[in-house]
User: Fold this.
Amino acid sequence: MSTDSLATASSPTKKPWSVCLDDRFGLVHQIRVKQCRLYSLGLGSDDTQFEAGMANSGCEVHRFDPSVKSAHVLESERLWYHRLSIDWRDPHPAFAAQKPYSNTRKLGTILNEFGHHKIDVLKADLESAEWKVLENLILEDVLEQIGQLIFEIHLHWPGFEVSGSDSSAVRFWYSLLKELELQDFRLFHSYKDLSKPQLFLKKDIFNASSCYTLGWVNTRWK
Assistant:
């Protein structure tokens, strides 16, 4: 992560910040003392090599996937699969009364149910639901419980329950990204997936991508 703009004659360039090597935010210490926890939100078709690798390294990993056959599966010593879908709202009380074991929850609700107070890494690929889920994390102050965010964001359409004109959708996206910045989350990773269609709000854009993976670190993390 760059810590400064381009250098001037009187101000030499500062060295980039190696986030993963910073003891405040890297996971080496948490893994060593068995206090590392990763939540992964996604669907069955996702590649889970990252999750398996983190579990093998010593991190407690919880994968939330509504396509899992059993409610809770211990895949390996530290890798759990849960048949749960993370949403931006809990089920309506009337629906919940009929289906007490509904597999849709807000992240804050999951944390309370599992008795987890902190997540070192939250990784999410929610196929265009990420914007509303991110909004919920901001509105309900769940962000302060998260050390790092790794989100796959989709730009080919506004996203689930994001209505209005193209400009209003962009303003909504920008407001969420700005709020992350205001809460001292700093972007340290950006990957543009050029294998995906070159679309932005259903328009062809040269050298663009409809899908990016972005990583932020919570600089207030303790």
